[in-house]
């Protein structure tokens, strides 16, 4: 059963790639990695310069960025509102004069509203996935040089770290996302 990430709604938040010189070498290492880690064939991909759409193998989520955008903003916006509410209650209970003396609804609306805005901004950062840019850039550069990459789509940090160790043991230049 596939488990979606709690924040992004993706099946695989973490990815590891290793660059190798030849396609045969990359395919052999991909099979060994798949067996060693006990992953399905869809979780370990070989990206070659001959692939028409290499991006599909690097970022295979078919639900796309729009789903990530909606889920991340929704969940982190709610977390921000919750934290804003908690901050308001804490400040009010502490007797902070600016909060207590303010019109109750105005102070609450501002503090909780800003919490929601900061949560939405965090959702935007998650949607941008800045950790994926170096990963994609390294693979694309390798493809332009005629090299191949083995990509592992990990479900969690442990699986990602084990994949990185296996690929590095085979001599690949590894890169990973968060």
In short:
With 178 residues, the protein is of the alpha+beta class. It has helices at 23-37, 54-58, 64-93, 97-100, 104-128, 132-144, 157-169, and strands spanning 14-20, 44-47, 148-154, 173-176. It is built from seven helices and four strands; from the N terminus they run βαβαααααβαβ.
Q: SSE string, helix = H, strand = E?
A: EHEHHHHHEHE
Rg, nearest Å: 22 Å
Which strand order does the major sheet show? 2-3-1-4
Q: Based on the structure given, which CATH architecture of the largest domain is correct? A: 2-Layer Sandwich
Number of helices: 7
Low-confidence stretches: none
CATH fold type of the largest domain: Alpha-Beta Plaits
Instruction: Give the tally of β-strands.
Output: 4
Query: How many domain regions?
Result: 2
Overall mean pLDDT stands at 86
Residue share in helix: 55-70%
- What assembly state would you assign to the polypeptide chains in this entry? single chain
Terminal CA distance: 23 Å
Structural class: alpha+beta
Shape: elongated
Major beta sheet, specifics? 4 strands, antiparallel
CATH class of the largest domain: Alpha Beta
Estimated share of beta-strand residues: 5-15%
């Amino acid at each position: 059963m596939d488990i979606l990430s709690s924040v992004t709604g993706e099946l695989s938040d973490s990815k590891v790639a290793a660059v190798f010189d030849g396609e045969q070498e990359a395919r052999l290492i991909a099979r060994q990695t798949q067996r060693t880690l006990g992953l399905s064939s869809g979780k370990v991909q070989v990206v070659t310069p001959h692939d028409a759409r290499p991006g599909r193998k690097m970022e295979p989520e078919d639900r796309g960025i729009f789903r990530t955008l909606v889920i991340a903003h929704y969940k982190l916006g709610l977390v921000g509102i919750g934290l804003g509410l908690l901050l308001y209650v804490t400040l009010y209970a502490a007797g902070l004069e600016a909060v207590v003396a303010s019109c109750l609804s105005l102070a609450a609306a501002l503090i909780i509203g800003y919490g929601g805005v900061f949560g939405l901004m965090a959702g935007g950062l998650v949607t941008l996935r800045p950790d994926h840019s170096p990963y994609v850039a390294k693979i694309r550069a390798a493809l332009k040089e005629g090299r191949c990459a083995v990509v592992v789509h990990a479900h969690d940090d442990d699986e990602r770290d084990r994949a990185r160790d296996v690929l590095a043991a085979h001599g690949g230049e590894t890169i990973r996302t968060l």
